[in-house]
């Protein structure tokens, strides 16, 4: 088996696992949505630690709606959403549907944060916001943030237009290609 075949098999397995996780949270996907689940591993080659899965329902010039799936132990790495095309950048609201999410934003650092990310030297904001099912948090444009789900989670994201290719990551090794 070639490296490309193995990666394709791993991606298909992650897509199926994400679809099953979403179904377990009561979220129904069409067959096309299941096939289009994005597996973001950020180029670090450690998707079990640094990664997430996404379903994008709509992404227009005015709004975006997505489902995010974090498998147990996954972290979405620290980043911000800069201005683009005359916009102030993406504003997003996370609403937890299943699991517990530890969101890190600017503010007083947690004395004993739950998350222990891979390459911690590339994480600069440590104010910990704990989100349970039904809770939400809005992140303004140009705000560094990252999040972690020790036991896995499903998160609905509602935002202004999403242009993931413009996201700025603190870790220079991260590659974000939607």
Describe the fold and architecture.
With 178 residues, the protein is an alpha+beta fold. Helix content is 15%, strand content 34%. It has two helices and eleven strands. The strands form two sheets. The protein has a six-stranded antiparallel beta sheet with strand order 1-2-3-10-5-8, covered by helices on one side. The protein has a five-stranded antiparallel beta sheet with strand order 7-6-9-4-11, with no helix packed on it. It starts with a helix and ends in a 9-residue tail after the last strand.
Please state the CA-atom Rg, rounded to the nearest Å. 16 Å
Structural class: alpha+beta
Uncertain runs: none
* Largest β sheet strand count, sense and barrel closure: 6 strands, antiparallel
How many helices? The count is: 2
Shape: globular
Termini separation (Å)? 26 Å
How confident is the prediction overall: mean pLDDT?
95
Beta fraction of the residues? 25-35%
Number of strands: 11
Instruction: Please trace the helix and strand order, writing H or E for each element.
Output: HHEEEEEEEEEEE
Largest sheet, order of strands side by side? 1-2-3-10-5-8
């Amino acid at each position: 088996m070639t490296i490309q075949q193995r990666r394709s098999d791993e991606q298909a397995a992650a897509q199926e696992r994400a679809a099953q996780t979403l179904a377990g949270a009561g979220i129904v996907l069409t067959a096309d949505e299941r096939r289009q689940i994005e597996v973001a591993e950020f180029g670090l080659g450690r998707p079990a630690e640094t990664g997430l899965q996404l379903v994008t329902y709509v992404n227009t010039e005015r709004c975006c709606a997505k489902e995010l799936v974090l498998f147990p132990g996954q972290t979405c790495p620290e980043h911000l959403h800069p201005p683009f095309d005359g916009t102030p950048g993406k504003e997003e609201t996370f609403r937890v549907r299943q699991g517990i999410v530890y969101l890190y934003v600017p503010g007083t650092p947690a004395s004993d944060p739950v998350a222990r990310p891979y390459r911690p030297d590339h994480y600069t904001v440590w104010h910990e916001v704990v989100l349970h099912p039904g809770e939400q948090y809005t992140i303004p444009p140009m705000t560094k943030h990252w999040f972690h789900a020790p036991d896995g989670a499903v998160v609905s994201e509602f935002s202004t237009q999403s242009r993931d290719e413009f996201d700025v990551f603190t870790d220079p090794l991260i590659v974000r290609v939607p």
